[in-house]
Amino acid sequence: xxxxxxxxxxxxxxxxxxxxxxxxxxxxxxxxxxxxxxxxxxxxxxxxxxxxxxxxxxxxxxxxxxxxxxxxxxxxxxxxxxxxxxxxxxxxxxxxxxxxxxxxxxxxxxxxxxxxxxxxxxxxxxxxxxxxxxxxxxxxxxxxxxxxxxxxxxxxxxxxxxxxxxxxxxxxxxxxxxxxxxxxxxxxxxxxxxxxxxxxxxxxxxxxxxxxxxxxxxxxxxxxxxxxxxxxxxxxxxxxxxxxxxxxxxxxxxxxxxxxxxxxxxxxxxxxxxxxxxxxxxxxxxxxxxxxxxxxxxxxxxxxxxxxxxxxxxxxxxxxxxxxxxxxxxxxxxxxxxxxxxxxxxxxxxxxxxxxxxxxxxxxxxxxxxxxxxxxxxxxxxxxxxxxxxxxxxxxxxxxxxxxxxxxxxxxxxxxxxxxxxxxxxxxxxxxxxxxxxxxxxxxxxxxxxxxxxxxxxxxxxxxxxxxxxxxxxxxxxxxxxxxxxxxxxxxxxxxxxxxxxxxxxxxxxxxxxxxxx
Length: 518
Known about the structure:
Low-confidence stretches: 496-518
CATH class of the largest domain: Alpha Beta
Distance between the termini: 51 Å
Structural class: alpha/beta
CATH topology of the largest domain: Rossmann fold
CATH superfamily of the largest domain: P-loop containing nucleotide triphosphate hydrolases
Shape: elongated
Radius of gyration: 27 Å
Strand order of the largest sheet: 2-3-1-4-5
Strand content: 5-15%
């Protein structure tokens, strides 16, 4: 992959001086159009060998473009805060919004390459990380981002020559350290690891551009022209190209679904409710104070029909926790800031650190529920979201985050009764809006969306628990019991390597049963 970057590319001084003024003007013009239209963000990854011109190129882009609309993100070893979250978290939250250019000095490629050079991961594990990166970049592109990936290449002789030149110049000598010379010794390992990873991630939607780094003028002019051409082409495009997605397939020809088969008559009398509630709240309090929980984190995701009782269930969970240990994240329509980012961004930034709990009242599933039903996104958007959500939750699980998801189901008759009751109570009246009444007209469409959501996103790492919520007592106890059993299973699995991680679910009788939605 590096052959074309080892042939001695050169640009003479006269050609360079002649080309730069027009290039700079065109770059700034394209940047102004990007900022005004705010159609998409630009993600620029600057990677490569030491001494190949990464820093010089970033500085040059700041000189040639308007620095007010550029952001440079430099990543080295993760901080304590970053280590307590999924590895991709620090990149997720740093993505530029629409209309801006984000330059990543160090990126999601740095750690896999470093780990492979140090033999901390196998080639198979590197391949798995490459697949994960490809899916992440595909999501960015499908969300409209322009992703440009540059790898600056030097031969080993060229790298030594470059470092000596930098070391000799008093203005740049500080940039060369013993660490840089030590890296020269691992040149072959870097070539092998980087070459392998670049081949696997050289995708049609986010291809790599390998540039010879020995000649400054050639490198600078090439990067500037590539950035300009990519910007102009993206600005001229009318629509964001989406990947082809297979249409939804219907299998419920007998009109039986996971929702229609729920027994909404299940209930718990007041006496048993008080006993069970106290029991499971006490158990939850013990579990989150377990020393093993300090190396894990918990995400509770609540979805459900309007007036299904999500708020009441969340309050019963909170009553068992230290208020300093958890956060409730209510999710409504996205803000302007959130609309300028990928749809998962507003959830990424609320992920809890180790030993903490995040409770989402409405979640990232809005993309396949309300956005789908109300037409707030295209069919391609919500169809591909199933895979993107599964990837997201898989990353959480891999990093030690327990994801427990609840859908609260009530009947249309019970929902109507609760709507009317809310209108009669002053401190509950704010909960009922005209939108809630309007959504009742789309009950069947929402129910179908829920069934599709469960079918496509109830995974081994993050299964859905369907809660019969016509009776609030039954629903609250089932949620607490399921939560405790899931945490207990996860902590035991962590304690006993090789133990199966299937979480217990509650069947209609309230007794533990096999994993899966109920």
